[in-house]
Each structure stands twice: as C-alpha cells, then as structure tokens.
Task: inverse folding
C-alpha cells in the first residue's frame, strides 16, 4: 500500500467515504515525531542540520592499515572510522574479514586516535560481541530484512546504521527500521547505498531521489554511501556532493591507503589524498548550504 493511499469504504446505502490509512511505519514516520532525530556518537552529532562523515576501508586488513587511515581522518577532521570485521561476500572464496581480530584492531585504533567506530554485524548472536567494540552497529544491504537481526540490534543500546537492500523499496526500508524502533532502540540512521537496476556501467544505481524522499517521510537521519552507490572511485566525489545538496545528514565513504591492493572493494575506495580533497570541498559546500561538517 502506498503511504498516502486512501482506502475507499462502502457504507450501507451505497455511500462511499475516503478513510486515510496510517503509514505502515508509525514509529518511523514524521507523524510520530515533529523534529528530526539526532544521534550522538562520540563528538559527532548526526542529524539536525549538520553534515557528518564516516570513512575507512571496506575491510579491516591489519593494524598498520587502520592506523594510517585513522591518522588521515584526524587530519581531515573526520570523527568516525568505518571498517568491516565480518564481511558477507557474494563469493565464498572472497576475503570474509578478520572477525573478532578485526574488531579488536578497530577498537584499539579508534581509542588511540579518539575516533568512534562503525562496523557491520551479520548475525543476531554476534550483536553483543560487536557492540562491545563498536559505537555504531551497521546492518548491511544483504541483511536489511533479516528480521531476527533487526530485533537483536533493536534490543541493543548502540546506534544502528541501516543500509537499504539492493532490491528494496523505500517503504520496505522504513518498515525494516520500524522493527528496530519497535524493540526500543530509537537511535537509527538510514543509509541509501544504491539499488540494482538494468544499468551495468556502475556497480549500483545511487538513488538520489531517496534522500529527499526519506527526509520528507521520516524523522530519522539519512546517510548516503556514494562508494557502494557507484562502485567507481572516479564517481564518488560527484555523487557525495550531490547527496549533500539533496539533504543527506551524512556520508559514509570507503578510503584505503592503497586501493589497488585492497582485499575488498578497492575499485570504489578513495586514496587518502583524494579523500582529503573531498572533505575540504565538502566543508566549503556545507558552508554554502548552511550545513557545516559536524
């Protein structure tokens, strides 16, 4: 059912009246909350008019790699470090992540450089484990409708970054978020990361429509992922800026010291130098939009 669909009810005497149905995501809808939800993570506020940045490699490979990236983030003024410890991959032969060892590296490097950490959790039974190391629990595209996992992070006290499923509608994404809020966790951020279309030039098709649409439908912060949304580092810069102009509350960008040697998603990862330029340009763009980097 469309969010604004009118249900026509027949009454005795052939009288037809229109009854407006409530949205299928009552906790997530703007009807539930007049003001924007703001999620506080360390020194960063996500939502409420500023532009937050999260960055780091697709996968944690070793401590030296993460320290190099963390140092670059600090120099750019970025406060949230991303990195995958558990990596659900399309092929079973691809690098699957370091698991607990990756979580330990993330937490150690984050503490050393004063950065908050966001990383993916893939199984309900791992939520407590990952929450012990990370500041934000990420639900990946492949798990957006893993309802047991949504229930588990909904019972956690950690903020949740919910990525849109690659074949999911906006309404399905909001209903997935509803599971988390229903369990009591109201610190949810929605992430547009591109969807599958017939286009093959890019890895996915970044749905720029989704950013203003979500901002109008829900009070939750909206994050954009131009890395997965394009799959090509040459396109990340432009799509990141477009998402900011469209109203995104934040960006999550893949960055690697040596993308050509990355164990996961090197083709869409920015170099440290390219990332520094992007942040500088986003800072200027944010000033022009009246939405400074948080």
Result:
């Amino acid at each position: 059912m469309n969010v604004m669909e009118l249900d026509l009810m027949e009454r005795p005497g052939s009288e037809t009246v229109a009854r407006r149905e409530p949205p299928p995501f009552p906790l997530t809808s703007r009807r539930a909350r007049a003001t924007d939800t703001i999620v506080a993570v360390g020194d960063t506020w996500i939502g409420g008019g500023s532009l937050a940045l999260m960055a780091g490699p697709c996968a944690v490979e070793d401590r030296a790699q993460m320290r190099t990236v963390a140092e670059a983030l600090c120099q750019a003024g970025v406060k949230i470090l991303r990195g995958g410890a558990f990596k659900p991959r399309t092929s079973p032969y691809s690098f699957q992540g370091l698991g607990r060892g990756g979580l330990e590296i993330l937490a150690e490097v984050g503490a050393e450089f004063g950065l908050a950490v966001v990383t993916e959790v893939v199984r309900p039974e791992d939520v407590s484990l990952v929450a012990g190391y990370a500041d934000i629990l990420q639900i990946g595209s492949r798990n957006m409708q893993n309802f047991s996992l949504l229930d588990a992070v909904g019972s956690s006290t950690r903020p949740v970054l919910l990525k849109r499923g690659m074949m999911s509608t906006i309404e399905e994404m909001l209903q997935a978020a509803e599971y988390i809020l229903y369990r009591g966790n109201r610190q949810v951020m929605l992430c547009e990361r591109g969807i599958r279309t017939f286009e093959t030039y890019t890895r996915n098709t970044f749905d720029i429509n989704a950013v203003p649409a979500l901002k109008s439908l829900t009070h939750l912060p909206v994050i954009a992922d131009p890395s997965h949304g394009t799959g090509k580092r040459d396109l990340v810069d432009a799509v990141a800026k477009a998402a900011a102009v469209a109203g995104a509350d934040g960006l999550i960008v893949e960055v690697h010291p040596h993308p050509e040697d990355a164990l996961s998603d090197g083709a869409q990862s920015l170099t440290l130098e390219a990332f520094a330029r992007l942040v500088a340009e986003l800072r200027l763009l944010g000033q022009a939009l009246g939405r400074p980097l948080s």
